[in-house]
């Protein structure tokens, strides 16, 4: 019997998409957490991985990078990127809940 590459039921593909949405939201939140950690720890800006995380987080933060503008830039970074991470996680869970129905 040949392997069938297509899902047998609609539920299989919906479960995959649900896991994908949740996984992407956790990945993005992790990128923001790394960005916050690297900034607070004064990580080496010349390091390739640090540059990658900074660049990716700047793209993914969308409009949340300057919601809060306190006098201390590090507090602003924690608040803004923390808020963005929280929103990604909440929206990811909401989308996953809708997909499960």
Write the layout of secondary structure elements.
Layout: H1 10-40, H2 48-60, H3 73-100
Helix pairs in contact: 1-2, 1-3
Flag low-confidence runs: none
The overall pLDDT, averaged over residues, is 89
Count of the separate structural domains: 1
| Helix count, DSSP H or I runs of 4 or more residues | 3
User: Per the principal axes of the C-alpha atoms, what is the gross shape?
Assistant: elongated
First CA to last CA: what distance?
33 Å
Structural class: mainly alpha
The radius of gyration computed from the alpha-carbon positions, rounded to a whole number of angstroms, is 18 Å
Could you estimate the helical fraction of the residues in percent?
over 70%
How many distinct beta strands?
0
Largest sheet: none
- Secondary-structure element order, N to C: HHH
- As a percent range, the share of strand residues is under 5%
Oligomer: single chain
Structure, described:
The protein has 101 residues and is mainly α. The protein has one domain. Helices cover 71% and strands 0% of the residues. The protein is built from 3 helices and no strands. It has helices spanning 10-40, 48-60, 73-100. Helix 1 (10-40) crosses helix 2 (48-60) and helix 1 runs antiparallel to helix 3. It is elongated, with a radius of gyration of 18 Å. The two termini are 33 Å apart. The relative contact order is 0.16. The model has no long low-confidence stretch (mean pLDDT 89).
């Amino acid at each position: 019997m040949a392997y069938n590459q297509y899902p047998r039921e609609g539920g299989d593909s919906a479960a995959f998409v649900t896991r994908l949405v949740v996984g992407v939201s956790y990945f993005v939140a992790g990128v923001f957490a790394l960005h916050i950690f690297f900034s607070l720890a004064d990580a080496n800006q010349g390091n390739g991985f640090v540059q990658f995380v900074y660049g990716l987080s700047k793209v993914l933060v969308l409009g949340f990078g300057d919601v809060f503008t306190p006098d201390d830039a590090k507090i602003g970074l924690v608040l803004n990127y923390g808020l963005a991470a929280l929103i990604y996680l909440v929206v990811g869970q909401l989308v996953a809940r809708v997909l499960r129905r």
